[in-house]
Amino acid sequence: MKIGIVTVQDSNNFGSFLQAYALQFTLHQFGHEVVFIRSRSKKYIKDLFFRTRPIKREYLHLFKFAKENWNGWKKFQRFQKEQKCFRVLDSYKDEKLDLVILGSDEIWNVQTEVFRNPIFYGVGMKPVMAYAVSIGNATIDDMQCIPYENFKHISPILVRDAHTSDFLKTIQIETSVVCDPTFLVDKSIFYRPYQNKLFNGIPFILVYSYGLNNQTVRGIREFAKRNNLRILSACFPFSWCDGILDCAALDFCAVLEQAQFVFTSTFHGTIFSILNHKKFVSLPQSRKTSDLLEVLKLTDRLVGDKECDSDVLHEKLVEHIIDYTYADQNIEKMRNNSLNLLKSALKKYE
Predict the structure, then answer these.
(1) pLDDT of 29
(2) Are the C-beta atoms of residues 231 and 207 closer than 8 Å to each other?
(3) Largest CA distance in the chain
(4) Are strands 230-234 and 204-208 parallel, antiparallel or unpaired?
(5) Which residue in 36, 38, 45, 71 has a CA-CA distance of 20 to 30 Å to 225?
(6) Where are the alpha helices (DSSP H) in the chain?
(7) What is the pLDDT of residue 183?
(8) What does each C-alpha distance from 323 to 21, 166, 298, 319, 320 come to in angstroms?
(9) CA 303, CA 265: separation in Å to the nearest integer?
């Protein structure tokens, strides 16, 4: 079949790319042709990385604005090179598709305005199914802005978390919970050798986060000093780090491999720390991360804003040994169950 995917593979973070890359790889393994359907304008995507003109108070700090946008432009160039592995249609109608898959990721999280766009619900498309979709932290009340009939033509709806499943039950739609696409494949498909002079022979803690408060930053810095570590950030530039790695999404596993420790506050940062058996802690910014760690019996990897000091980080990262035995076994079960559900759903349309 020729399958179109509606997701956010072109965002400015690693996870959005890697989940799309994994789903495409899986569908290719099943023998299907895969294309992506553009869900947001090229200008919208570019603006996620950099802007050519300052706005409002940015005029008061033009040097800072110029530096941030120069870094954003360079990051955009790196990410655009990665995008070449996807074939993207500007419109659903550009080619005849046998099936459209919505997902994965938080494409139904209506707390973000762009995800109220009918394209993420397959409006006007058919046939349509969903794989590993999520409403993120959106509440049932939040979801009232989407006409419930938008969900009725999607079959099946395979969701990424119990919270999304609970919402759909309120509108009488039964679902099955599946794993994120990055769990469907062997981690080796994400690996590409990567070296950087910032960490050649120098032990470091890797930070992968959209942003952290001052108390958490202080805890990380004190922990790094205590253990003679360099602090390096991937994907997102933070001035409090000792260096920023200019890596792209498919370099992420190689970077993780060389890190002594990982501090993340993202869902996919947590997933890839687990897949690579890293000594890590996770400060979740959404419940899906906490839910995942609970399922895998790794809740001891959780930290909170108020407890994230040097002593806590030292105990969790240095003194505590992580037993990945149960997590690996459970991931294998999730993978097999999810692959079977996906195969069954696809067979319905072949």
Answers:
(1) 97
(2) yes
(3) 59
(4) parallel
(5) 71
(6) 14-29, 42-49, 62-82, 149-152, 162-169, 214-226, 252-258, 267-275, 287-295, 310-314, 325-347
(7) 97
(8) 28, 31, 9, 13, 9
(9) 9
The DSSP code for 320 is P
Cα–Cα distance between 149 and 171 in angstroms, integer?
9
Please choose, from the candidates 343, 5, 22, 325, the residue with its C-alpha nearest in 3D space to the C-alpha of residue 183. Answer: 22
Average pLDDT for 262-291: 94
Scanning the structure block, which residue is given the tokens 């110029």? 66
Looking at residue 106, its pLDDT comes to 95
* Whole-angstrom distance, CA of residue 305 vs CA of residue 121: 35
The CA distance from 332 to 186, in Å, is 10
Instruction: Report d(CA 173, CA 169) in Å as an integer.
Output: 5
Report the chain's terminal Cα–Cα distance, integer Å: 7
- Sequence letter at residue 170: T
* Mean pLDDT of the region 286-290: 87
207-213 mean pLDDT: 95
Instruction: Give the pLDDT score at 141.
Output: 95
**Amino acid at position 80, single letter:** Q
* Helix or strand holding residue 56 (H, E): none
According to DSSP, the β-strands at 128-133 and 33-37 are unpaired
Cross-strand pairs, 4: 35, 100
Q: Determine the average pLDDT of the residues in 5-32.
A: 97
Written as one letter, the residue type at 197 is K
pLDDT at 138 over 90: yes
> Model pTM?
0.93
Report the run of H or E that residue 208 belongs to, with start and end: strand 204-208
Q: Give Cα 59 to chain centroid, integer Å.
A: 33
Give the per-residue pLDDT at 124: 94
Task: Assess whether pLDDT exceeds 80 at residue 43.
Answer: yes
Looking at residue 304, its amino acid is G
Do the bridges between strand 154-159 and strand 128-133 make them parallel or antiparallel, or are there none, so unpaired? Answer: parallel
Closest among 73, 70, 68, 78 to 238, alpha carbons compared: 68
d(CA 204, CA 260): 6
Q: How confident is the model at residue 350, as a pLDDT?
A: 87
What is the pLDDT, as a whole number, of residue 340?
A: 97
Tokens matching residue 239: 């001035």
